[in-house]
# Entry
Amino acid sequence: MDKLSIVELFSGCGSQTQALKNIGVEHDVIGISDWEVNALISYDAIHTDDGIDYTKELTKIEVLDYLSQFTFSTDGKESCNINRVKESRLRQLYNAHKRSKNLGSIVDIKELPYCDLLTYSSPCQDFSIAGKQEGGVKGSGTRSGLLWEVERLLNNMEVKPKYLLLENVKNLVSKKFLPSFNQWLSTLEELGYHNYWQVLNGKDYGIPQNRERVFVVSIRNDILFSNKNLYRLFLPIFLIFNIFETSPISCHVIDFVIVS
# Structure
């Protein structure tokens, strides 16, 4: 079977690549994007740490010279002065950054490598009922507004990903933020995608927590499912979203289920 090539934007500790591992979908993460130091080191520890210290032959100055090309944060809110980070932590960050193929902060990325699947579960703080609910309107400058950097990156891709996946808090589709959400879906349609979205609750899928989240799956209009890994990945979503009767690819999904 062909492996899915994946880029994880707003990768955090890699919950979405972990989900693919959990359901047995073969994939290759060819790049991630995050700027938070602790998240990057955690991602490395969970997914990419090979036990080799790639800074062993490097001086602190050499490590700093490399890391200073990128923007990092120690609190997820503001960029930090990398020169003030302890050397031991700098070396951890260097290894994590290299091994995880981190492309850097999303605002600094000029272009993305081609991938089959792009995940972009952008910051939820400004949508969440636990936050100030400043929203994510285009040009707002909020953390949740970083979602629109994804539009910029997609526009810069000669060949766009076949599939996009977004996860965010339920409040994203509340009355207050629904206009922004619909604007985002319209933007994806203009970029050549068909969108399916649904609010799902973790408690309905074996998670001992009442955790409601919005999931958006976007499929490039020209795609017919030829990769069995992709069937395995998206079939549960199709069943949950109940979109078989409206999806132009439903017959291909059914054919796969029958022959499998």
